[in-house]
Amino acid sequence: MAHNDALVAELEAKSNKLRNHCFTQFCTFEQGHAGGTMSIVDVVTALYLHHIKFDAKDPDWPERDRVVMSKAHCCEAIYAALVELGVYPEETLGTYYCYGSPFQGHADRWSTAGIDYSGGSLGQGLSFAAGMAYAEKLKMILKPPGAEETFLPRYIKRFDPLYRSYCILGDGELHEGQVWEAAMFANKFKLDNLIAIVDYNKWSLDGPTNDVMPIEPLMDKWKAFGWWVTEIDGHDMGQILDALDLSNRMYGDNRPKCIIAHTVKGYGVSHWETRRMHLGRGEEMMKGVREGREKYGDVR
Amino acid sequence: MATYGKHIQIGEPVLPAKGIEKALKAGALKDPRILAVLEDMGFPGIDWWTENMPERMVEVGIAEQNGAVVAGALAAEGFVPVIYSFLFANVGRALNQVRQSILVDRFNVKFIGREGAWGEVGISHNTIEGVGFSRVLPNLVILNPSDVVEAEKATEAMLQYHGPVLLRQESSPTPVRVFTDDYPFNIGKAYWVKEGSDATIIATGYMLTEAIAAIDLLEAEGLDVGILNMCTLKPLDVGAIIEASERSGAIVTAENASIIGGLGEGVAAVLAENLPAPMVRVGIEDEFSQSGLITPERDDLKIHFGLRAEDLVVSVKECIAKKERLRCRD
């Protein structure tokens, strides 16, 4: 199913706006995880500003779709989306990294409304997302106190889960053995309400991900673990939307879903792209910010 | 005959595991949020669970890191997962996962971890470091019950408490039943098993059994020694420790764990900051355990580690001698 051009264009524009929000955060201390944030911005835009069930007025809504940012150092992209959704005012972007700020250096569930998982120690997010996906299934079976009113009407029609659980993984963190423990777990419990998105930007901190520790053949790996897998260009908004929609429609097939998004580290800012920058600091950072601001027209 | 506290009635040896199992079943029947998380290491009363609530058993296999984080997520969604395994596995193997995906957000996850210096299985499973590595973790309550009654009450309290709790199920010889059924258990409250003016043994877990046996030997020598039972290893009952220092001025700690990072060090810190008193720490010195059969007739590990009542008597006398030396100096 191809998406209409108007929607794609609208989300592409939003995506650029999110990039600008990220630049504002990077300026606070002239520091930030620029490379991985830029590579995932398009996916985050598609998720938060179009695809998922999320109520900006009630970020704890029990039926909201869960999003676990397993590569939690790239939370700048999520913060940008939360500002765009109106959960936080734009001024909050300027408090990134600050003491007491809701925009902490790594995603933190208790500091930030709209964040489902406190990450930072890589390789754990998929387990958490799988746990929340499994909890959705358990709520259907066990009906804990209070569940009757909220959930029961939906049990009857099982066209859709109560909520879906999304997990954004970095390619480097696939080195962690626990990711594959979680992959087995999701397969065992038939978590068709779980969608993992791999930000495959090919670069880790020490060098090319596949040199640091080869993760290929990646598609075959997920397939071997019993997952439904698809590969997309992670900067093509149409492809992102199609993959997300398809994973929704596949609900009921008893398989967890994995979308491998081929991306570019530092995408959209040539200074960062060529340097494959992981954590940018000082002038390195500001040079990229100036370039980006010029390119995306400072549409704050 | 020694005079014991109101809720003390010393009986025969009974496995504390029975108390844990009973409280878990009762808790699960009352509270539909409670889930059993298994890591291929069994579960207290596993047959009952399989028969009565199979849908509330989450078997994650030998994958403790995933298990810990999945439990964190289940707690985030309102369930109360109880993870059962060896302490070196469910907390130790997954230490960073427990920190990052449970304790940081204070998710309501319960751990039952088997640990202690004793056992046939040897150096890998007879671990002694669990209390040490767990005590430094913020937001984690640590309980270490001493007998079957306390094990049941501690498990019940753990399930009612909102927040992460580690309950240590000790690998040790079977402790005697010490407490009466109306023993008032509270998280964070120590219990005076016996008062005494010459010295106080602050005991936790199985070592309470040895401490009680030591009292008779000490009384025969004319010494009036108290016992303070410290089930909650975090947060420690600071008031009771200061009281022990006031009452007797000589403190011996007794634990079935490393003396580094455990009860002994915790008590030493409280004393040093409040009311210093001479101390002797009885526990496992800085070494690993090994295999050893436990029979009533023969217990090589108990002798090796110096955890017998006789060893406690020596430590108490050593501590009283330290107290006397301090007095002479004044």
In CATH terms, the superfamily of the largest domain in chain B is Thiamin diphosphate (ThDP)-binding fold, Pyr/PP domains
Shape, per Cα inertia axes of chain B: globular
Percent of residues in β-strands of chain B: 15-25%
The total strand number of chain B stands at 12
How is the largest sheet of chain A built, in terms of strand order? 2-3-4-6-5
> What is the CATH architecture annotation of chain A?
3-Layer(aba) Sandwich
Tell me the number of helical segments of chain B per DSSP (H or I, 4 or more residues long).
12
Q: Mean pLDDT of chain B, nearest integer?
A: 96
Q: What's the number of extended β-strand segments of chain A?
A: 7
* Name given to the CATH homologous superfamily of chain A: Thiamin diphosphate (ThDP)-binding fold, Pyr/PP domains
> How many domains of chain A?
1
CATH architecture of the largest domain in chain B: 3-Layer(aba) Sandwich
Task: Describe what this molecule looks like in 3D.
The complex is a heterodimer of chains A (300) and B (330). Chain A is an alpha/beta fold and 300 residues long. Chain A has one domain (5-296): Rossmann fold, CATH 3.40.50. Helix content of chain A is 46%, strand content 11%. Chain A has helices at residues 5-29, 34-51, 75-85, 125-142, 147-156, 177-188, 209-212, 218-224, 237-249, 270-275, 282-296, and strands at 31-32, 66-69, 165-170, 194-200, 228-233, 257-262, 280-281. In chain A, strand 3, helix 6 and strand 4 form a beta-alpha-beta unit. In chain B, 41% of the residues lie in helices and 18% in strands. Chain B has a 7-stranded mixed β-sheet with strand order 2-1-3-4-6-5-10, with helices on both faces. The relative contact order of chain B is 0.13. The mean pLDDT of chain B is 96. Chains A and B meet through helix 4 and helix 6 of A and helix 3 and helix 5 of B.
